[in-house]
Amino acid sequence: MSGPDFGELLGEEVPEAERERLRNVHELLVAAGPPPELSPALDEPPAVGGDTVSLLPRRRRPALLLLAAALAAAVFGGGYFAGGHRHASSAFKSIHAVQMRGTEAAPNALATIELGDADTSGNWPMLVTVQGLPQLPKGGYYELYLTRHGKIAATCGTFTVHAGTTRVRLNAPYTLKSYDGWIVTKHVRGSGESTRPILTT
Length: 201
Prior knowledge:
The protein is of the alpha+beta class.
């Protein structure tokens, strides 16, 4: 009887490096072979209180060993990546969200700034989700600022974007109540637009 297909059990979502590691473990278990044959003294099932405990026939043990090894690898791999996905989505705990809209310079752009709890040093972690901003030429980047009376007052970090939705972790090591808004600007060498708002609250 042939063993289960390793690829089918593992699925297509497992990255190549992790797939290779699990395959090596699987091959080691297969190479180890089935457990030793039972001694003649243990060939008959033991009697327990008048009832018998049936044992699996020996001829099925190699296939079951392969199945158990493959299932263990699949469960471990699936659990690892499901756990990784949960971690990615639950590691950031938002306590407040701020919406941003595109200006005339990027009318289709949108963004959300999620604020986490400040740490003991006064750093405010942020998860910024951006859509609709164009990818910039090499060396170009966007910058998120806090504003006071509508003017740039403090930077919260820089980022680049890719097609679709971009999520980036930034940080605000300030007393936020001292500011009244947020803007995003773009920095492209020679453009002269480094203070022009692209997104604003």
